[in-house]
Amino acid sequence: MKFVSTRGQSEPVGFTEAVALGLAPDGGLFLPQKLPNLAPHLAGWESLGFADLAYEFLKLFATDLPPDVLRGIVQKTYGTFGQAETLAPLRKLDDRLFVLELFHGPTLAFKDFALQLLGNLYEHQCAQRGEGINILGATSGDTGAAAIHGLLGKPKTASFILYPEGRVSALQERQMTCTGAANVHAIAIDGTFDDAQRVLKEVFGDQDFAAQHRLSAVNSINLARILGQCIYYLSAWLRLPATGRANTEFVVPTGNFGNVFAGWLLQRMGVPVKGFKIATNRNDILHRLFNTAEYRSEPVQPSLAPSMDIQVASNFERFLYYALDENPTRVRAVMAQIKATGAYRFDVLNKASFSSSRATDGEITALIRQVWERHRYLVDPHTACGFKELNPARVSIVLATAHPAKFPEAIHAATGQTPTHPALEVLKARPIVKHRLPADAAAIKAFVAKHAV
Ligand SMILES: *Cc1c(COP(=O)(O)O)cnc(C)c1O
Fold first, then answer.
1. 380: closest CA among 95, 235, 171, 173?
2. How far is the CA of 131 from the centre of ligand 1 (A)?
3. What ranges in 206-270 are assigned the alpha helix state H?
4. SS3 of 266, please?
5. Distance, CA 401 to ligand 1 centroid (Å)?
6. What are 200's strand-pairing partners?
């Protein structure tokens, strides 16, 4: 299987190359040249455990990896989460309402599913090529922690994660700084998340430096992250009672469009899901898109669901590719217009089975309380957005993207409860190891040069 760029000006590449590159050389995002049809496989996949299902699914894409190598990577990835049946539990709240818990990985957020996979794919590549890899990323919270834990203790790898000092939650900071691992470098910069991203771009902009230190970016546009996320949708759908499946709507707390896009791609591959609901917080660029047919960036506003405080949905370009009939010339034109004007209006936007909702901070608090009172179930502020305006005609599966114990203040304010998790309690007893650096490319480069593998 080959992967093409949404912008059509890079040569198609195999799976390994697409994962190693992240972004396509022409600035586009990778997608399968031709989507496989999963429909004939579904009946046979019903009885598979999570790791076996992941293997059967990924082998349709990772055709350049020997089967035993892929199997090893998959076993290793989903082994770190614990027992198969506890990987992604499907909790039934009532006959028409389920929660898919995606927070049982090492950093208690759904990003672990894809970043654990990516870490093991990187490890394999390092071994193949006989050289190390240095991961450089900027984070406002969850991605950095999940990336760090994806590479924790792996030979010939180091991670350098920039985050804004004083602007990530105390627990998120502990997840990045209390690992005790020598190959993890948490860098607290003086400045905002935007400053961290600017510095990151400058460092990658020095292509000689990036090549010399074999720097690789972790961000939500890597193909492996999309495919890694498809698996839990598939697993959940297969576990539903057969009578409800075709009427299922996945409800997805959304920021970058990455998670929900993975589910939608699965539908395009022939899994009969009824629809997808995009649940945003007050940063509602995607909610506005599906209501007005206009994609328009607005300034980011902080919210109770910080991992969704995004106003440039980087995976939007993948949706656009399909919305524009897989025509890369049109994708290039639209992306150029968005870059120039910050907006694009579709003449006709086929909503393609998407619906959407938006929750303000006040509504998030009310929803956390309502779910607790009705079901005695605690949801984190991101997941809470999914409970706004559930469609009574559908069987809804709300994706729970983070463990409530990651956001104890918001939960306590809404319910009086204070959720805890042993993995987070352990961190509280460990020393914080971080490096304070100015938001300055020269300072970051000097640090990376000194500690790179
Ligand atoms: C990253 C994140 C999201 C948003 O995911 P996208 O793929 O950007 O839509 C939602 N909830 C939590 C807890 C996250 O960490």
1. 171
2. 32
3. 207-212, 223-239, 258-268
4. helix
5. 7
6. none
CA 302 to chain centre: 19
Does residue 382 have its Cβ closer than 6 Å to ligand 1?
Answer: yes
CA–CA gap between residue 346 and residue 292 (Å, rounded): 9
Q: Which two tokens stand for residue 201?
A: 């771009």
* DSSP per position, 418-452: ----HHHHHHHTSPP--EEEES-HHHHHHHHHHH-
Q: Cβ(366)–Cβ(340) under 8 Å?
A: no
Whether the Cβ atoms of residue 445 and residue 402 lie closer than 8 Å to each other: no
Placement of tokens 């082994």 in the chain = 79
State the catalytic residues: 111
Q: Which residue has the tokens 């709507």?
A: 249
**Ligand 1, atom 8, residue with closest C-alpha:** 256
Domain 85-107+224-421 matching CATH 3.40.50.1100: the answer reads yes
Ligand 1 and 140: CB distance under 6 A = no
Q: pTM of the prediction? A: 0.94
Residue 242 has which token pair?
A: 């057969």
Distance (Å, rounded) from C-alpha 423 to C-alpha 359?
29
Q: Find the Cα–Cα–Cα–Cα dihedral 60, 63, 69, 70, rounded to 10°.
A: -20
Query: CA 66, 69, 73, 74 torsion: positive or negative?
Result: positive
Residue 387 CA to ligand 1 center (angstroms) comes to 16
Atom of ligand 1 nearest to the CA of 406: 13
Strands across the sheet containing 184-190: 215-217, 133-138, 157-164, 184-190, 435-438
Q: What is the pLDDT along the chain (453 residues), one digit of tens a residue?
A: 999 999 999 999 999 999 988 888 898 999 999 999 999 999 999 988 899 999 999 999 999 999 999 999 999 998 765 555 679 999 999 999 999 999 999 999 999 999 999 999 999 999 998 999 999 988 877 888 999 999 998 999 999 999 989 888 889 999 999 999 999 999 999 988 778 888 988 898 888 998 899 888 777 789 999 999 999 999 999 999 888 899 999 999 998 899 999 999 999 999 999 999 999 999 999 999 999 999 998 888 889 998 888 877 888 999 999 999 999 999 999 999 998 998 999 888 877 789 999 999 999 999 999 999 999 999 999 999 999 999 999 999 999 999 999 999 999 999 999 999 999 999 989 999 999 999 999 999 999 999 999
